[in-house]
Design a protein that fits this description.
This protein is mainly α. The protein is built from five helices and two strands, in the order H-H-H-H-H-E-E. The chain has three domains: about 30 residues, no CATH class; about 50 residues; about 60 residues, no CATH class. A two-stranded antiparallel sheet has the order 1-2. The chain is flat and about 50 Å long.
């Protein structure tokens, strides 16, 4: 995927770049903006932290390592993957009510989009169009 992203960026293929943006939320042709510099800084900081934790992990006796450290990368860690049917069932089992599949920019929460949780300032989704958004009330 990285190879394809690099090729799109070097050839400036707007059609492919727009497709990637709609699917993943990654902008491949725009110059780095100050907000994106902060994101890059955060990624570097996380890489350094991950490297530090990897070294610390090696100092722990082998029989205790897996009890202390989770062997996943830093960032979003997924323990489960749900589709809309299984997640609605799970939420219902947990006694949530009014469970609804939503779009990235829809919510019953007042002024939801002003919090920029799932939406960028330009109104596009942060994670592309393939993410699942479900809302319920407890």
């Amino acid at each position: 995927m990285g190879e394809m992203f690099s090729q799109i960026a070097s050839t400036k293929n707007k059609n492919l770049a727009d497709y990637v943006l709609s699917r993943t939320g990654d902008e491949l042709l725009n110059e780095i903006k100050p907000k994106q510099k902060k994101i890059i800084y955060d990624k570097v900081k996380n890489k350094l932290l991950y490297s530090y934790l990897k070294i610390v992990r090696l100092l722990i006796p082998k029989n205790l390592r897996d009890l202390i450290f989770v062997n996943t990368s830093i960032g979003e860690k997924h323990q489960w993957m749900y589709d809309r049917f299984s997640l609605k069932k799970k939420l219902s089992d947990l006694e949530f009510k009014n469970i609804m599949v939503r779009n990235y920019n829809e919510s019953d929460i007042a002024h939801f989009n002003s919090y920029f949780l799932d939406i960028k300032e330009d109104g596009t989704p942060c994670k592309g169009i393939s993410s699942l958004y479900i809302e319920g009330k407890k």
